[in-house]
Known about the structure:
The protein has 160 residues and is of the alpha+beta class.
Amino acid sequence: MLTGDFVKRRVYDRRGDGGQSLAEVALLTPLLLLLLVGTIEVGRFAYYSIEVSNAARAAVQYGAQSLADSKDTAGIQSAADKDAPDIPGLGVTPTTSCACSTSPAVSVLCATAPVICLPPSTAVVFLEVDTTKAITPLFRYPGLPSTFTANGKAIMRVAK
């Protein structure tokens, strides 16, 4: 059975810990807020990077439908913009290259040099779409650049 002195002494011992807890919380709150803001920034950068990559894939899928679509830069830009509506000012650069079907590792730009393939090989057209977007962080961090660039790239064979 507990006596009255023991209960009073126990209550008295707990009263002295209140200030220490408050000081610990006051010291750790800025660190925890910094970690939270850093996590939000990393999430934003990951989101933009995924969106820029997906926009490149959507644009190359549009352009690879036919030879006419591979030259439609406005349509390729529109396909990328529609896939990433949250990213205004997305930079889209389509490039076509040609190669022979037997050696697709050697390719040249279709506009600069015609590709002559020996039979039974045929000319194959590839479309490459590069997307870029400069991302500005929510806060300025010392030692880090003021903008980061997210890049996307997709290559696909153009259907004939």
